[in-house]
Amino acid sequence: MKIVLATQFEEMARAKVVSGLYSSASQVIHNAPRTMHEHHQVQIAKLAELRQDIQDGLDSGPAVDWNPDEIKLSGRAMRAAKVENGA
């Protein structure tokens, strides 16, 4: 099989050989499909995790209204209590 690479990929393959990661450009090209497959598997796993996180959020119940001012006041009160207790 003959493969023609764009100039940028030829340069990348040469750089990998020069760096010592590979002993030849053929090794770089031989490794590319495996690397691409591994990258694709990671993308699939991340997408599955994202979908699960979305489902978990949907399953957690209806959204609840909240008031940011009340949350700030509550946080400030907790911080003041810690300061008073020497924490």
Brief rundown of the structure:
This protein has 87 residues and is an all-alpha fold.
Any overview of this molecule?
It is built from three helices and no strands. The protein is mainly α. The radius of gyration is 27 Å and the shape is elongated. The chain is about 75% helix and about 0% strand. The chain has helices at about 5-20, 25-60, 70-85. The longest helix has about 35 residues, at about 25-60. It has a domain at about 1-60. The N and C termini lie far apart (about 70 Å).
Please estimate the helix content: over 70%
Overall residue-averaged pLDDT value? 94
**Backbone CA Rg:** 27 Å
How would a crystallographer describe the biggest sheet? none
Q: How much of the residues is beta strand, in percent?
A: under 5%
**N-to-C CA distance:** 70 Å
Assembly state of the chains shown: single chain
Question: Outline, from the CA principal axes?
Answer: elongated
Helix/strand class? mainly alpha
Low-confidence regions: none
* N-to-C SSE string, H for helix and E for strand: HHH
- Number of helical stretches of at least 4 residues: 3
Structure summary, number of beta strands: 0
